[in-house]
Amino acid sequence: DRLPLGLMLRLTEFALEFQCRELGHGAVFVLSRWMYYTYNAYFVKDAGVVKIGVISDTHGLLRPEAEQCLAGVAQIIHAGDIGRPEIITALSRIAPVTAIKGNVDTADWAARYPATTTVEFGGRMIHILHDLHDLKLDPVSSGIDVVISGHSHRPGIETVGGVLYLNPGSAGPRRFSLPITLATLELTGRDIRPLIHQLGTA
């Protein structure tokens, strides 16, 4: 596990002050070790790709195509309107699941799921809610990198103020002529790469 970046910066600042107080090479050694740790923790460790599956509005239906598309992800996010608890059980067989409840998730089993949550994956802060119109916080001032929502059944990718807004669309029963989709999100030390996946026509 990594130390928080803020703490790392404070420790580096302390080491610099240490150096200025007549401690010579010893302080330089301390500083160099912290800089080495910072480099490895925040650049080398993040050199790989963390792939997250993002699904929403299943409404009790988990399609085989969705399971196939999510195979191999490190984490799954469900943005609400789950429909049945068995959906989360099935998704959990693929990868760990972070889920929130949507407006249709009113049964007793859904009480365990929050209406919103904020998580950190791959060094990125991700805020999850079902309906984007219910967004209460300011993502920019809150340090949020990605806002994930569902509800509309309309897939979308948009960047506003440096924040990525991702709606994976609906992976459940078809609604009108809207597509059946989910998304994946690839997180690296430098990039956030969202992708919408079309699941089928039925």
Please explain how this structure is put together:
The chain has helices at 5-20, 24-44, 64-70, 85-92; strands spanning 50-55, 75-78, 97-99, 116-121, 124-129, 146-148, 156-160, 163-167, 180-187, 192-200. The model is unreliable at 27-34 and 36-46 (pLDDT under 50). It has 202 residues and is of the alpha/beta class. Helix 1 (5-20) runs antiparallel to helix 2 (24-44). The radius of gyration is 21 Å and the shape is globular.
Unreliable stretches, pLDDT < 50, 5 or more residues? 27-34, 36-46
Strand order of the largest sheet: 3-2-1-9-10
Q: How large a portion of the residues is in β-strands, by DSSP E?
A: 25-35%
Counting copies of identical and different chains, the oligomeric state is single chain
What do the pLDDT scores average to? Answer: 85
Number of helices: 4
Basic shape = globular
Biggest sheet character: 5 strands, mixed
Summary keywords:
202 residues; 4 helices; 26% helix
Précis, in short:
With 202 residues, the protein is an alpha/beta fold.
Topology (SSEs and partners):
Elements (H helix, E strand, L loop, with lengths): L4 H16 L3 H21 L5 E6 L8 H7 L4 E4 L6 H8 L4 E3 L16 E6 L2 E6 L16 E3 L7 E5 L2 E5 L12 E8 L4 E9 L2
Parallel strand pairs: 1-2, 2-3, 5-6, 6-8
Antiparallel strand pairs: 1-9, 4-5, 7-8, 9-10
